[in-house]
Amino acid sequence: EVQLVESGGGLVQPGGSLRLSCAASGFFFGSYAITWVRQAPGKGLEWISHINGEGGMTSYADSVKGRFTISRDNAKNTVYLQIDTLKPEDTARYYCNKSPYWGQGTQVTVSS
User: Fold this and answer.
1) For 49-99, how does the pLDDT look when each residue is reduced to its tens digit (9 = 90+)?
2) % pLDDT > 90, the chain
3) Strand 106-110 relative to strand 101-102: parallel, antiparallel, unpaired?
4) I need a labelling partner for 98 at 20 to 30 A (CA). Which of 38, 55, 84, 112 fits?
5) What mean pLDDT value characterizes the chain?
C-alpha cells in the first residue's frame, strides 16, 4: 500500500522558515518523482515544486523560486521542502504527491 505522510507544518511569523517532510512507503521510492502542491484557503491546488527520482532534477513555480528548496533522501524514503522567507500568502495546506497518490497534507500558517 502506497502511503505519503507529510509533517513539519506549523504557525510561523513572516520571514521565518520551515522544513516540510514527506515520508513515503509502499513503492520503490528512488524510482519515482515527487511533487509538492499547496492549497490556500478558498483557492484551488497550486503546483509548487517537483523532484525526480534520483534528486538531480528539480523545478519550482515562479511564486516560490528562490525561497523554496526541494530535496530528497532516498535512504530515508523522504522528500523535504525547505521554505525560507515565509510570506502570509504562503499560508496553505501543503501536500506531497506521487501520482495518483496523495498524503493528508500539513498546514502552514504564516502570521504575526
Assistant:
1) 999 999 999 999 999 999 999 999 999 999 999 999 999 999 999 999 998
2) 96
3) unpaired
4) 84
5) 96
Q: Which residues contact 11 (CB under 8 A, 6 or more apart)?
A: 109, 110, 111
Residue 17 makes CB contacts below 8 A (sequence gap 6+) with 82, 83, 84, 85, 86
Which residues does residue 19 pair with via DSSP β-bridges, in sequence order?
82
Q: Strand pairing partners for 95?
A: 37
Cis amide bond preceding 88, omega within 30:
no
Helices (H) and strands (E) in the chain, counts: 0, 11
Classify residue 32 as exposed, middle or buried by CB count within 10 Å of its CB (0-12, 13-18, 19+): middle
pLDDT at 51: 98
Taking the CB of residue 58, how many other CB atoms lie within 10 A of it?
Answer: 15
